[in-house]
Write a structure and sequence with these properties.
- By secondary structure, the chain is of the alpha/beta class.
- It has 2 domains: 177 residues, NAD(P)-binding Rossmann-like Domain (Rossmann fold, 3-Layer(aba) Sandwich); 189 residues, Dihydrodipicolinate Reductase, domain 2.
- The protein has a 9-stranded mixed beta sheet, covered by helices on one side.
- A hairpin with a 7-residue loop joins strand 12 and strand 13.
């Protein structure tokens, strides 16, 4: 495997504080780099869908020298945008051949290939940006966080709302005690907007020549192609490839409460659902997380809703309930953030919004570029933020798989102490020669 060149020694990340530390008046001390003006060379894995904008951001920040996609049509369109970029279908081949020419890697693929792609890049000591959710499984999230630290890589997950001033201010207000002790949190989404609650199709066909199906399957157990079922976009609803409504959107809508309250390592999780066949996620779910006391933060219950389920209207004191958002209920009032990204908020049944100090972001992708150049770590870096956030969220899917059984969780051991039958969901088996 190609190793990082001496020229790329400037790709490193500074130590980051826990979530709450990002809302203090002073930020982390920046590390100046002698290579701050060097052009950053990117390799982009997945250049369609969200990968289109991620690779576009990479082009603005430097030069895209290699691109990878399993769909020839998408790859060719990417080739038109990135003149001279080498083109591949298998990210492993791309990283092996182009590693010496690359400083940073973006991963914008279906969820099940996030971890193996990011891990390979981290072991090559590349900076890595990976779309949300960081991984397909809990164990993968923990492992990527460890690899990021071991290799001193500048990392970021693509939950763009983390850079919003509204999210950062709301989190700072909670930490300042403006709404008092938070007793409960509600988070909801209008997803899924793709098919769920389906059986595996029997009318399979050979994949079109333009789709490199084995590369799409990646580390998942092999299954035949079915037109209009998995690729593109609908993979989100399948356990083998996606993480459902929770995995798709909670890294956004759960983000402000997580930042405000450091919502990591719940002790138990339980789900009510429409029922599912373990092929696709349910049509709706309501998931309860029980977080114990952590530091100065008291224990708190968090409830997640999807598929049209919503919190009780009485919690909103006459405000219209949005189709997605979050609500933190405190002793002195509530903070309500309508929408997906935490950009806006208001205090309900409490004081006026006071001034509070928090660190402004230079922009989500720019945080990662700054870290690549030796400055402050991105807020949503793998080790201190994105990894723990993803672990928390995917515990909800663990409860969904258990189908009504309350999961007792030991975070240190990464073990469902009362449910050994879910071990393969915590740490999946890799297939087809893929490794983490």
């Amino acid at each position: 495997m190609a190793r990082q060149t001496t020229r790329r020694g400037f790709i490193k990340t500074s130590s980051a504080a826990i979530a709450g530390g990002y809302f203090a008046a002073a930020g982390l001390s920046a590390q100046e780099s002698n290579s701050a003006n060097e052009e950053i060379r990117f390799a982009c894995i997945g250049v369609g869908g969200k990968g289109s904008s991620d690779s576009g951001d990479a082009r603005k920040a430097g030069k895209v020298v290699a691109i990878c996609d399993i769909d020839d049509d998408t790859l060719e369109k990417g080739g038109l945008r990135f003149e001279g970029a080498a083109k591949y279908h298998d990210f492993r081949e791309m990283l092996e051949k182009e590693g010496k020419n690359v400083d940073a890697v973006t991963v914008s693929t279906p969820d099940h290939t996030h971890a193996p792609a990011a891990a390979m890049a981290l072991r090559m000591k590349k900076a890595v940006f990976t779309q949300k959710p960081l991984t397909h499984s809990i164990w993968e999230a923990r492992r990527l966080a460890e690899l990021a630290e071991e290799n001193e890589s500048a990392t970021m997950m693509g939950n763009q709302g983390t850079a919003n001033s509204g999210l950062r201010k709301a989190a700072a207000l909670v930490q300042k005690g403006v709404i008092g002790k938070v007793t409960e949190v509600h988070v909801w989404t209008n997803r899924p907007v793709w098919p769920q609650g389906l059986d595996r199709p029997t009318d399979t066909t050979e994949a079109p020549k333009s789709i490199h199906w084995k590369d799409f399957i990646g580390p998942a157990e092999y299954r035949e192609f079915a037109a209009g079922v998995y690729h593109p976009f609908k993979w989100r609803g399948w356990w083998a490839f996606g993480t459902g409504a929770l995995g798709d959107m909670a890294c956004h809508t759960f983000n402000m409460p997580f930042a405000a309250l450091n919502l990591r390592d719940p002790v138990s999780v339980v789900a009510k659902t429409s029922g599912h066949n373990r092929e696709t996620y349910p049509k709706w779910s309501v998931i309860d997380f029980d977080f114990p006391k952590l530091g100065e933060r008291d224990g708190v219950k968090v409830t997640w809703y999807d598929g049209g389920k919503l919190p009780e209207e009485s919690l909103f004191h006459g405000e219209q309930v949005s189709t997605s958002g979050s609500l933190l209920v405190g002793e002195k009032g509530s903070i309500y953030s309508p929408g997906d990204y935490g950009a806006d908020f208001k205090i309900l049944n409490g004081p006026e919004v006071p001034d509070v100090d928090f660190v402004q972001s230079p922009g989500h992708f720019n945080e990662w570029v700054r870290a690549i150049r030796g400055g402050d770590a991105a807020m949503s870096n793998f080790k201190n933020y994105a990894g723990p956030l993803t672990e928390t969220i995917l515990l909800g899917n663990l409860a969904v798989w258990a189908d009504g059984k309350k999961i007792e969780w030991n975070a240190e051991k990464m073990e469902a102490t009362n449910a050994p039958e879910v071990a393969h969901i915590i740490k999946p088996e890799y297939h087809n020669g893929y490794i983490l």
